[in-house]
Amino acid sequence: MRKQIENRDDLTLLVATFYDKIRADKEIGFFFSETITNWEEHLEKLTDFWETNLFASKKYQGNPIIAHNAVDKKFDQQITSAIFGIWLNLWFATLDELFEGENVDILKRRARKMGTFLFMNIFESRRKA
Ligand code: HEM
């Protein structure tokens, strides 16, 4: 039986497994491998992000909108809805592979919402560019 997502250790495993898939993906891996220089730091930051999101820990203090607008600019506005679709499918696949229960559904829903929000903000930032 797969386990429930109960604590930070579970999120550490989730984030590490997810980014292994991201890095191996032929269509979207390069956005990450060409941008992220310190993977240990990135995985820690993303674990903070999801811990703050799910367990209200307040550890994550960053701004994902600014970060993603900058990535889109760096790659000459190459980020499409299909890229976000691949990201989301890998997120869902990782969640289903490792865990089950209510928090799996919550993390799917939050990522879907956030993906839409980030993508729309990317469009807005292009208009201003
Ligand atoms: C629901 C979708 C997504 C979520 C929830 C998400 C979340 C995050 C978060 C929280 C960060 C850290 C931002 C910070 O520095 O504080 C980040 C960084 C990053 N994301 Fe995403 N992301 C999503 C989709 C994507 C997609 C589709 C791409 C593909 C281009 C992407 C590429 C990156 C990259 C390259 C960074 C590193 C930025 C840097 O360190 O300069 N993300 N993401």
Quick take:
Helices cover 74% and strands 0% of the residues.
Question: Which superfamily, in CATH terms, is the homologous superfamily?
Answer: Globins
Per the CATH scheme, the topology name is Globin-like
Overall geometry: globular
Q: Classify the helix fraction into a percent range.
A: over 70%
Largest sheet: none
Number of domains: 1
Radius of gyration: 15 Å
Structural class: mainly alpha
Ligand catalogue: protoporphyrin IX containing FE
Low-confidence stretches: none
Distance between the termini: 50 Å
Q: Which strand-content bin applies to the residues?
A: under 5%
- Count of individual helical segments: 6
Q: Tell me which CATH architecture applies here.
A: Orthogonal Bundle
CATH class call: Mainly Alpha
Output mean pLDDT.
97
Number of strands: 0
